[in-house]
Amino acid sequence: MKYDHISFVNYNMNQLVLPLDLEILIPQNHLSTIVHEAVEKLDDTLLFQPYKGGGRPLYHPKMLLKVIIYVYTQKVYLGRQIEKLLTENIYFMWLSGSQTPDFERSIGFDLIV
Question: Are the C-beta atoms of 96 and 102 separated by less than 8 Å?
Fold first, then answer.
């Protein structure tokens, strides 16, 4: 056969990719870690105050705030764009804990600049 001498690096698209902990892939000095650390230092009572309780479970306000702050730094202002980043961008996936809120419908989120 004509191509017997060619060798390729084996790849498998169904292979489990590790690490599953996205934080390992985020550089310590990356803007997303700064946003994360700043929001984590906030007093929970400030963020929980508007919620009355009851009903279905809500997305955690700290997670939403992290995503919103990071969105502004990336100059992304449309709900659909945010949703796409939450599934395709490692920094957004990490900040959201791999959750994908519907920013356009559920939250009514198109940022006004």
Answer: no
Q: What is the pLDDT of residues 53-100, one digit of tens each?
A: 777 788 888 998 999 999 999 999 888 899 999 999 999 999 999 998
- Residue that is written with structure tokens 């997305």 in the block: 59
CB distance 34 to 12 below 8 Å: no
Region label for 75, one of left (φ > 0), alpha (ψ between -120 and 50) or beta (otherwise)? left
**87 domain-assigned:** yes
Gap between the Cα atoms of 76 and 51, Å rounded:
27
Residue 41 placed within a domain: yes
Q: 27: domain range?
A: 22-95
Structure tokens at 19: 């690490």
Q: From residue 18, how far is each of 22, 33, 100, 111 by CA, in Å?
A: 9, 20, 21, 35
How does residue 1 score in pLDDT terms, banded at 50, 70 and 90? low
Residue 15 placed within a domain: no
- The yes-or-no verdict on residue 15 having pLDDT over 80 is no
Q: Is residue 113 part of a domain?
A: no
